[in-house]
Every structure is written in structure tokens, then in C-alpha cells.
Design brief:
6-stranded mixed β-sheet, binds zinc ion, 7-stranded mixed β-sheet, about 375 residues, binds nicotinamide-adenine-dinucleotide
């Protein structure tokens, strides 16, 4: 079938709307009519070249081109076709996309760590995760698909392992956001930082991920949730999501956090800025208390390897630094669970959506993200 999608033709270019030809769904595959897609910063990392190499760089390494690529890894929609052997979904089911597929059988899936599923590695290989064939084309050209989802497309041809069934009366906006931003931010606080009742938690960067780290910390019972963002709009929003204090910079926050904790500093610090750099680690670790934890959720440039860190302080103060993907949760549990908390009224999801765009307005949406105008922007499909 034919569909329309936002495509990147190389690093550093704008999104272009293209007509895409999708093959019929093969065994284990489905076609989803996309309803809402979220504009996460991770797609911006592909555009900026933090998380992808240009076709010229790939060719210099003797590798096949990474572009064109259909974008988008946060979204929700409705199943409109199923291939042979699909056992978990039927036509008409509502689904939320999972940027890490879950096979249910590998060591990680079998031990409650679906965010580490072995199928996740296949997301960076060419072709479908089911059988490796290339099933998306633009004219005569094969195209890659971000996270094997491509939510910036009116229709998605995907493996059933990449989709999580949700209750069909839930609105698609919230269902799209729990697919990446909410699960990652909330899980960064609850699963990875393991925030405990009464703790002091610092969240650095209040975008779609950070706002949910604030919500997660609050729901886990933190006594203080301190949000840091240079933009006033973000700091105001952080208060709506449960922050107790806000600061414009880490420099400004550092002495205040020491004072309010009687010199102990924060139990947990979570980095959710747009792009993390190695120079941020030492100042972030400086506000972690003895025995406390720093969680790094933000994505860095994939070639960056230098980090500023006091190794003396790390060992002698018994601290830890943890990375996280998908907030260290299990997509098949966390996505429906977050939606249940939304249904109960304890998790705010509608409030995360600042602006809606059509597919054709995607570049405008990403410019608004760069300008700090959105907690989350979403594409709403017809
Ligand atoms: N680990 C994962 O599984 C995972 C999943 C999704 C997104 N991410 C990453 O999380 C990060 C955040 O994504 P997002 O969609 O929320 O981005 P966003 O652009 O919506 O928000 C980033 C926020 O950080 C703020 N900021 C930038 N520099 C800052 C600084 N020095 N101090 C304080 N605040 C600062 C910005 O003003 C903005 O409000 C990105 O790197 C994204 O790629 C990681
Ligand atoms: Zn994302
Ligand atoms: Zn698995």
C-alpha cells in the first residue's frame, strides 16, 4: 500500500514528506494506522547526527547508507491488517508503539528486563526485525525506518513485537506519549533511581522526559523534587507536574540544594537535558549525596567518550552512576500500567501536550522543540 511519511534524506536536513510504498505484512507483521505521534528529542539526535552517521561518513567506513529514514518512535494507532501467524493482535486493536521490541523469549525478556530485549539490537540493522527484508520504499529507493517503527507515517508496517495492545477507550494522545517519553522519564525516577519516600530528587532538564521524571519522583514519594531548566516556561510546567523547587541552572541550584538538605545534598539526580555532554557529569555528581545515585537518561553524541568525573569522590563517597534505556521498565507492563494510572487520575498525560501539528508541519514542531516552546509536541493524523 501507499502512505505518507516524514523522511530524513541525510544528517542535517529538514524532514521531507514523501509517498512511501509499504509491502504487504509478512509473517508476524502488522499494519497500523497511526493516530498520534510524539516529537521526542531522540529523532532530533538523528537529524543532528548525534545518533546517526551521514551517508558520506557511512560510506567512508564501507557501510551501507543510513538514509533515507522514516522518522518517529513515539506513537499510537489502530491495527488495520495482520500477516500470517500474528498471535497477539487482531484488526481493530489499539496499540502503543515500543521503540524496543520485546520477543518475550530472550534472557532479558525472561528476567523482567524487556527494555534490554535482544531484538533491540536489530533496530540498527537494515530491514524488518522479523526476516531482515526491506519492506519500505520511496519510488525505487529502499528506506530505513527509525526504531523499526516510523511513527511519523500515516501507516506503519511493523513486527507485532514492536506494538503493545492498549484499552480501546483510551485517547490516542496519552497512548502515544506513554510509548517513549512518559515511560522513560517516569521509569528513570521510579525504576532506575529507585526514588524512596522522603527523598530529595533533582531533575535536570524539563522536556517530555524530564516532566515525567518529576511526576515519577513525586509519585514515588519524594519530599523535594527540584527541577532545573533555563527556560521559565519549563520551570512553571515542572511545578504543575509536582516539582517543589525550580532553578534556572545547576550553578544556581548547587548552593541552595546544599543549604536545604543541611549539607547532605540530593539522594537522586536525574539528567534529562536535550543533549548530555561529558562536562555535565562532574557538576551533577557534586550535588549527589554520599551513597546517592546519578541517573543519565539523556542521549549524548554517540562518538563522545570523554567524561569529567572525580573518581576519588565516586569511590570514597560510595556513589553510583546509572544509565537507562526506556526508564529501565518493561514495555509490555509499563505502557498499560502508566495508562491505568492516567485513567485513575494520578498520572498527568493530557497536560504534557503543549502543541499539535499536522504531518506536513513537522519541521515547525521540531523548531518549537528547539526553541523550548513545548513540553511535548505531537503530530495528530486524520
Ligand atoms: N534513555 C532513553 O531511553 C531515552 C528515551 C527518550 C529520550 N531520551 C533522551 O532524553 C533527552 C530529553 O529528551 P526530551 O524529548 O525530553 O527533550 P526536550 O528537548 O523536550 O527537553 C530537554 C530540556 O532540557 C533543557 N535543557 C537543555 N540544556 C540544559 C541544561 N544545561 N540544564 C538544564 N536544562 C537544560 C531544555 O531547556 C529542555 O527543556 C534527550 O537526550 C533524548 O534523546 C532518552
Ligand atoms: Zn523518545
Ligand atoms: Zn526479548
Amino acid at each position: 500500500m501507499k502512505t505518507r511519511a516524514a523522511v530524513l534524506w541525510d544528517v542535517g536536513q529538514d524532514w521531507k514528506i514523501e509517498e512511501v510504498e509499504l509491502d504487504d505484512p509478512g509473517p508476524g507483521e502488522i499494519i497500523v494506522k497511526t493516530k498520534v505521534a510524539g516529537l521526542c528529542h531522540s529523532d532530533e539526535h538523528v537529524l543532528q547526527g548525534d545518533m546517526a552517521m551521514s551517508n558520506e561518513q557511512m560510506s567512508a567506513f564501507g557501510l551501507p547508507p543510513a538514509f533515507p529514514m522514516i522518522g518517529g518512535h513515539e506513537g499510537a494507532g489502530e491495527v488495520i491488517a495482520v500477516g500470517d501467524g500474528v498471535s497477539t493482535l487482531v484488526v481493530g486493536d489499539h496499540v502503543s508503539a515500543s521503540f524496543i521490541p520485546s520477543c518475550g523469549r530472550c534472557r532479558w525478556c525472561a528476567t523482567g528486563q524487556q527494555n534490554l530485549c535482544d531484538l533491540g539490537a536489530r533496530v540498527f540493522e537494515p530491514g524488518m526485525i522479523t526476516d531482515g527484508r526491506v519492506a519500505h520504499h520511496i519510488g525505487g529507493t529502499d528506506t530505513a525506518v527509525l526504531a523499526k517503527l516510523g511513527t511519523f507515517s500515516e501507516h506503519m508496517l511493523v513486527s507485532e513485537d514492536s506494538m503493545v495492545k492498549i484499552e480501546s477507550d483510551l485517547p490516542f494522545g496519552p497512548a502515544a506519549l506513554v510509548s517513549c517519553g512518559v515511560a522513560t522519564g517516569w521509569g528513570s525516577a521510579v525504576h532506575r533511581a529507585e526514588v524512596q519516600s522522603g527523598e530529595t530528587v533533582v531533575v535536570i532538564g524539563v522536556g517530555g522526559i524530564g516532566a515525567n521524571a518529576v511526576q515519577g519522583a513525586k509519585m514515588a514519594g519524594a519530599r523535594r523534587v527540584i527541577a532545573i531548566d533555563p527556560l521559565e516556561f519549563k520551570r512553571e510546567k515542572a511545578m504543575e507536574f509536582g516539582a517543589t523547587h525550580t532553578f534556572a541552572s545547576l550553578e544556581e541550584a548547587t548552593p541552595a540544594i546544599a543549604e536545604m538538605t543541611w549539607g547532605q545534598n540530593a539522594d537522586k539526580v536525574i539528567i534529562t537535558v536535550g543533549l548530555v555532554e561529558g562536562s555535565m557529569i562532574a557538576p551533577a555528581m557534586a550535588i549527589v549525596r554520599k551513597g546517592g545515585t546519578l541517573v543519565v537518561t539523556s542521549i549524548a553524541n554517540m562518538m563522545a567518550t570523554d567524561v569529567q568525573l572525580s573518581l576519588f569522590d565516586l569511590a570514597m563517597m560510595n556513589k553510583q552512576i546509572k544509565g537507562t534505556i526506556f526508564g529501565s521498565g518493561n514495555p509490555r507492563f509499563d505502557i498499560p500500567n502508566l495508562l491505568s494510572m492516567y485513567r485513575d487520575g494520578t498520572l498527568k498525560l493530557d497536560e504534557l501536550i503543549t502543541n499539535s501539528y499536522t504531518l506536513d508541519q513537522i519541521n515547525e514542531g521540531y523548531q518549537d522543540m528547539r526553541d523550548g516552546r513545548n513540553i511535548r509536541g505531537v503530530i495528530v493524523f486524520d
